[in-house]
Amino acid sequence: MLKLKLLISLTLLSISLFANETVEEQLLDCENSYLACSIKCEETENIDISKCVAKCESLYYQCESEVKNKSEENEDNLKERNDEK
């Protein structure tokens, strides 16, 4: 269980390190994190795999949502700057 908590923490940390990447790269990172998490679920013994994978899916959707929200915020900021000129 400690390994799973560590993996989830690392996944959340990776979400915050997207600073200069494109949206597509960020979404790919979300997918890769999901795959790594679900593989870890399958490799870890004595856990409910379906619950573990459900947590991975939840993290994926959280990551995807954050990427899209950041992208929208950046677009809005660019529009505001262009409107000021």
Structural class: mainly alpha
- Please state the CA-atom Rg, rounded to the nearest Å: 16 Å
* Overall 3D shape: elongated
Portion of residues in beta strands equals under 5%
Poorly predicted sequence stretches spanning 5 or more consecutive residues: none
Give the distance, in angstroms, between the N- and C-terminal Cα atoms.
54 Å
**Series of H and E elements:** HHH
What percent of residues adopt helix (DSSP H or I)?
Answer: over 70%
Count of strand segments: 0
Largest sheet: none
Number of domains: 1
| H/I helix tally | 3
Overall mean confidence score, pLDDT: 82
Which tags fit this structure?
85 residues; 3 helices
Give the structure's gist in a few sentences.
This protein has 85 residues and is an all-alpha fold. The protein has helices at residues 2-16, 23-43, 49-84. The chain has one domain (11-84).
Description:
It is elongated, with a radius of gyration of 16 Å. Helix 1 packs antiparallel against helix 2 (23-43) and helix 2 (23-43) packs antiparallel against helix 3. The chain is mostly helical. The chain contains three helices and no strands. The chain has one domain. The chain has helices at 2-16, 23-43, 49-84.
Topology:
Blueprint: H1 2-16, H2 23-43, H3 49-84
Helix pairs in contact: 1-2, 1-3, 2-3
